[in-house]
Protein 1
Amino acid sequence: MVKAAGRAYIGGMVTRLYTHPIFLEHITPPGHPERPDRLRAIERVLDDEVFAALDRAEAPEGDEATILYAHPQEFVERVRAMIPDIGIARVDADTTASPKSWQAAVTAIGAANAAVDDVFRGDVANVFVAARPPGHHAEKATSMGFCLFNTAAIAARYAQRQHQAERVAIVDWDVHHGNGTQDIFWDDPSVLYCSTHQMPLYPGTGAVSETGAGNIVNAPLAPQTGSEVFRDAFLSRILPALDNFAPDLIIISAGFDAHHRDPLAEINLTEDDFDWATGQLMQRAGRHSDNRLVSLLEGGYDLQGLAFSVAAHVGRLMKG
Ligand SMILES: [Zn+2]
């Protein structure tokens, strides 16, 4: 595609934040790690005056038809039928739905697609979407791992269909492998999927040998490793793959459960690592994608680790 040369941001780089009260109404059972308090913790930390320049916007209503960009109709209807009128319905071993879960999931998709619109129009420099439920475990026809639909995959296809993006890269630093995203793009070389994740760990996929159509780059991390191994995976595997692919858009599946405080995994990153990785991806977005960068919240289950990590991530997005 033709890239706009030297787009200037009058008044400097602006970072947009999309969120919506409906994301608090996707209710999970007591004790479930993927809970509304995660977003409250993010909201609180981003209330600080150092984030005063954030362009805060309410997520628009999502277009249900865009779910079909990544999932078959029959599956979409199966998910819709699982949404309960009251209480909490079990979708899989650890995935549940409450009465407002459909609206939350569709609004998360609406926010991600709007973020794609924003960066292609050049309205803002980059966007962080603070939404739930997360998405990267949702396969073509399977909801799992706290995820109903694969928001990042839908947004990537949305960029291709609505903005003529030829190549979209999804970089997933959630501590769990994004089996869903890998499944959806397994034979689609127009989307590069790069992931760092703990292995072994749920969901069990993500070996180096899983390469799809040459468009899948898995960089598994051994338990109890940390900053050095994570940064080396970026420098030796993920960033070279991005340079080789030259994407028109970079989407981050931004999970923060590789933070050392997180209860679901044993990778020992700090918020400084997320700051660093964000900076690296911004550099690549500047080099290849006319700065177009959209970041979507995935996991992160220790409220303090999550809040500090999001603060570092969004702070870096704002600094440029
Ligand atoms: Zn995760």
Protein 2
Amino acid sequence: MFDVIVAGGGPTGVMLASELRLQGVPVLVLDKEPEPTKVVRSLGLHVRSIEVLDQRGLLDRFLEHGQQYPLGGYFAGIPKPAPERLDTAHPYILGIPQPVTDRLLTEHATGVGVELRRGCEVVGLAQDDQGVTVELADGTRLRSRWLVGCDGGRSTVRKLLGVGFPGEPARAEWLLGEMELAAPPEEVAAVVAEVRTTHRGFGAGPIGEGLYRVVVPAAGVAADRTAPPTLEELKQQLRTFAGTDFGAHSPRWLSRFGDATRLAERYRVGRVLLAGDAAHVHPPLGGQGLNLGLQDAFNLGWKLAAEVNGWAPAGLLDSYQRERRPVAADVLDLTRAQAELTSVAPGPQAVRRLLAELMDFEEVNRYLIEKITAIGIRYDLGDGHALLGRRLRDVGLKRGRLYGLLHGGRGLLVDQAGRLSVAGWADRVDHVVDVSEELEVPAVLLRPDGHVAWVGDDQTDLQSHLPTWFGTRIT
Ligand SMILES: Cc1cc2nc3c(=O)[nH]c(=O)nc-3n(C[C@H](O)[C@H](O)[C@H](O)COP(=O)(O)OP(=O)(O)OC[C@H]3O[C@@H](n4cnc5c(N)ncnc54)[C@H](O)[C@@H]3O)c2cc1C
């Protein structure tokens, strides 16, 4: 009997597993593939994901393997720099190929004691009041108290649950791969620039070591989208769009992706939950899918762990869907809007020009960048102070940085006047008496995911809020 089984060892699954281990929960991750994929989907991490890594002490490892880029031009590719003084200590994009992100997250997970079994495909599940029976393709049956489906956009877990996945099917598809090109770099660059004036979904850019990342619209939506394209299929599409295939050869990998946009109707059915692409899919415009999955995991981990560890207050686990599903719905809408704006038809082009003008207004630009980077998210925790429900940026305290105090994944009361107490919750919540020039409130209570659960200076008021997130007082 495992406490939690996670189906899917992609970024969402291993991040979730690490968060569970941080809270002492034994967890087993099952992935159907014998080896990690070489396909490079995501190319970078946005601000909130960078902050999440910082909150767990993982950021240095990622900075070593990535490159920091200025934060502009990410909304529909409209080339506007980010506004100054964003509300974060990390105002940049961290360029890092997904296989590296996946590897670093997996190394961390196994380092903290997550058991990852590869070549294990989940094909069946049945649940009762006590737990879930998980069936693998080889007939093995495993038992756990909870199961989380982090098994990607074609999620078997979601299908087995019968959870609806409404939205739009793929209407277009693109072929993607890394390969060598025989044509000289200047010729490739000139042709790509020309084709992109009429087809924004076309590209061939050098990625070092003589390789190019090539993306080209497909002839149509493939019947079997799990099958990678052939080199010949990709070269044919290059000839169709560019009049040349650049002498493409020696592909390292080939893949295809579409523009399906769908959101799971529910994130939880009994003892089974969904996270990451298993719960939402959308085209990669704006580069948000992996980020969204990591942040799902960060929201769910401590809540599910509280359930396993027996102190979760009523409704805590359901706050996962309540908080994260609207965020995903918003990202889906943002990609739908961007998809319209990348059309070269005259109408969308006019809207794009208008929007580009509007982005010269700092507030508009800030609003869009806070959406894309996910630092603008405010969970609906009811009426109250402007910080309530938001994540707090990494402010400086006398003793050091705030995020350094969140590595353990516990609640945290930052108390500037030193008049408050968390007695009765001290096993779940740390209490730090310290001051920050960047914090304009007397005290703030942070959840393990760094979101603000309470603001104030009144002990009675604090005590009435602590049980909502941290369960009953232990006397
Ligand atoms: C071209 C492209 C570019 C992208 N660029 C970006 C970007 O720049 N930024 C960004 O944030 N996102 C980007 N994305 C999206 C990002 O790649 C995904 O959102 C992300 O991989 C989702 O992570 P996940 O862990 O939820 O799912 P996945 O990465 O799909 O992982 C799911 C895992 O589950 C396993 N699995 C599947 N079925 C089973 C089963 N039955 N049993 C056991 N295991 C199973 C799979 O083997 C896989 O390892 C891009 C996507 C594409 C296609």
